[in-house]
Amino acid sequence: MWQLQAQSQGFYEIKGSKFLSFLTPSDEFLSTLTSLKSLHPKAVHFVSASRILQEGQVIESFSDDGEPKGSSGVPTLNVLRGEGLVNVGAISVRYFGGTLLGVGGLVRAYTQAIQSAIENAKEQNLISAYEKLIEWEIEVSYSLLSQILYLAQKTQTKVLQRDFLSHSVKLILCANLASKEEFENLCASEAILLC
Question: Whole-structure pTM over 0.90, yes or no?
């Protein structure tokens, strides 16, 4: 299984129709879809698919967004399956070019568009082997918050939540095992006590 590190884009054009494709980590999928709809008000379709690994099971979704049934969402999902990608979303924005493509033409077009985004992601080294992420909680004083946030960024540790308490800040962090250990080692080397 493979995962995406950051968003990638692709493009495909046929018979005047333009397909802008976006591959995004699953935690950015819905916000990216919303953003694309506002950025491309003249586009006619926003086809999407996603694959999310939850508790050892892959949860899949797709939307044809008004295209003929089976012509766009499922082919997009099949590309993600074929590449073995998880925790990823794919969106294709279509601008109609005036010529009907038929179901077969749409299948090829949406497939090519997403494959373009995947190829670009590979060229930019944005796809890596899937690693299970660990969530954990720490509590730090306000005076150490900026230093902790810096160390989190340095070790590719995501801050999922911040709760500001009366005398401290509670953080929920998320990273793979290697990044978690690196984060904790850097905290220890700088004599930062984590609760």
Answer: no
